[in-house]
Amino acid sequence: MDAHALVDLLFDVSLAAKAAVDDLGESGLTDRPGQYQLDVAADAAAVAKLAGAGLSVLSEESGWTRRDSSLIAVLDPIDGSTNAHRGVPFYSTSICVLDADGPWIGTVVNHATGQRFQAIRGLGAWRDGCPVHPSPCQSLEESIVGISGYLDSKLGSWQYRALGCASLEFCSVAEGALDAFVLGSTVALQPWDYLAGLLICAESGAAVTELDGQNPWIASETSRRPIAAANPKLMSAIVSVLAA
């Protein structure tokens, strides 16, 4: 399967996940902490399509399905599921496919707006087929920063946003809607939360890093602390504050 055919497959999977949520109607919590019925329904639809296409799958909701393919799809069927449940229009399906060389293709579909973000390693990042690039902001004092969790230190940004969907917040940095996305000191993300969005950031030209100096490009059930900024100068300013 070539890259563009795989992108099409991932978008089809995302639409199947959304259709499963729409068909479910009202959706409360399951017995698993933090999991909604809509997460389970979206997962079943998405995993069936990905595994049926021959990919190994690591999903937030169901763990590993197949481990016999050199292509691994790391999946968050509904990222921002609390937003989806409460009617906040900011939630997505996030999928990153890794090959032997690491993250290859990432897609994030904003189900509230229908916008489709994608990245292909070495080729760039796009929203609805148009290339995306980060903002030119280099000043922390002028920046608008997305946050997850509580910031112990005063970052000194002009404004903050806490939007509740990491994959779309990374995409917002990639397209210049946010100047950065950072994590509070107690916050870590799982690969399904961030891989696709982080790849889209990197391919857009944004600066990305992992706050603890670890490799974020992993397909495992291991947390990491990735952040993104519009450019290296802004990233340097952010990291210096967070590390203080």
Low-confidence stretches: none
Helical content stands at 25-40%
Category by helix and strand content: alpha+beta
User: Could you tell me the mean pLDDT?
Assistant: 96
Key traits:
32% helix; alpha+beta; 244 residues
Describe what you observe in this structure.
There is one protein chain. The longest helix is centred in the first third of the chain and has 22 residues, at 3-24. The model has no long low-confidence stretch (mean pLDDT 96). The protein has helices at 3-24, 37-52, 81-86, 166-174, 191-204, 232-242; strands at 56-59, 63-65, 72-79, 92-99, 102-110, 116-120, 124-127, 130-131, 144-148, 159-161, 180-183, 207-210, 226-229. The protein starts with a helix and ends with a helix. Helix 1 (3-24) runs antiparallel to helix 2 (37-52) and helix 4 (166-174) runs parallel beside helix 5. The strands form 2 sheets. Strands 2-1-3-4-5-6-7-8 form an 8-stranded mixed β-sheet, sandwiched between helices. A hairpin with a 3-residue loop joins strand 1 (56-59) and strand 2 (63-65). It has 244 residues and is an alpha+beta fold. The protein contains 6 helices and 13 strands.
